[in-house]
């Protein structure tokens, strides 16, 4: 199975597993659903990658970081459950599964599954981004919108779209449900690797908030800020974020 296909297949199947966990634990506490979802999806992805790509390294939010990955040519970067809070709240669909492949310094494949929406967005050919409305839509966390996103909204006369996980936010830009996702204040490589791979394949702008490239397989897995937006908005957004 080719790498693009494997990423999409594993993200989709992990999502199906998480839907089953959600149904199985419908009467459990949100904390129990979170813990079970994280563990079962991580175990599934780790097992499947070990079988399908035994020579490759893996970096997972729920796994132990092995420093040997820093000398690997190929690294799978996965978030078994992005948006545990949303997953734990029955009925919410803004959570995701991320599976990405980094090879020789670049993201070369990625998939973002949105299991509760029945959708997987994947490289190399995500759906074309629909036309944008006249008013800029800035997608933000429904619980803690970062100040930098509010600055972009105010400077560019936009409106906010509230959503859960990072993967769901990036997917909303690809799907044409929002136009800009800007974040600062704390993320890790697994939060953005697969969404960035899909966004790039869709022709979107991706960068740090100062305009520098997003780099993966670094010794410190923290990657605290990013911009993903329609390319026609990139210069205006960067004028706000880089100045801040």
Question: Could you walk me through the main structural features you see in this protein, from its secondary elements to its overall organization?
Answer:
The chain is an alpha/beta fold. The protein has 2 domains: 3-122, Fructose-1,6-Bisphosphatase, Chain A, domain 1 (2-Layer Sandwich); 137-241, D-Maltodextrin-Binding Protein, domain 2, CATH 3.40.190. Helices cover 37% and strands 23% of the residues. The chain has 7 helices and 10 strands. The chain has helices at 3-24, 30-52, 84-88, 147-156, 166-174, 189-201, 234-241, and strands spanning 57-60, 74-82, 96-103, 106-114, 119-122, 137-141, 159-163, 180-184, 205-207, 225-229. Helix 4 links the parallel strand 6 (137-141) and strand 7. Helix 4 packs across helix 7 (234-241). The radius of gyration is 17 Å and the shape is globular. It catalyses: adenosine 3',5'-bisphosphate + H2O = AMP + phosphate.
């Amino acid at each position: 199975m080719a790498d693009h296909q494997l990423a999409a297949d594993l993200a989709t199947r992990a999502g199906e597993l998480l839907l089953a966990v959600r149904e199985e634990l419908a009467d459990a506490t949100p904390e129990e659903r979170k813990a079970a979802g994280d563990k079962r999806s991580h175990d599934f992805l780790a097992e499947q990658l070990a079988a399908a790509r035994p020579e490759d390294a893996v970096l997972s939010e729920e796994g132990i970081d092995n420093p040997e990955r820093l000398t690997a040519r190929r690294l799978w970067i996965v978030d078994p459950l992005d948006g545990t809070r949303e997953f734990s709240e029955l009925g919410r669909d803004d959570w995701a599964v991320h599976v990405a492949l980094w090879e020789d310094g670049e993201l070369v494949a990625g998939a973002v599954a949105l299991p509760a929406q029945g959708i997987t967005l994947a490289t190399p050919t995500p759906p074309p981004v629909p036309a944008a409305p006249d008013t800029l839509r800035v997608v933000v966390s429904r619980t803690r919108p970062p100040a930098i996103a509010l600055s972009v909204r105010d400077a560019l006369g936009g409106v906010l779209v509230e959503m859960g996980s990072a993967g769901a936010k990036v997917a909303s830009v690809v799907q044409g449900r929002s136009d800009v996702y800007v974040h600062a204040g704390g993320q890790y490589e697994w939060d953005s690797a697969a969404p960035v791979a899909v966004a790039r394949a869709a022709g979107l702008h991706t960068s740090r908030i100062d305009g520098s490239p997003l780099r993966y397989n670094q010794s410190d897995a923290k990657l605290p800020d990013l911009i993903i937006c329609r390319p026609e908005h990139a210069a205006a957004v960067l004028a706000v974020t880089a100045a801040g």
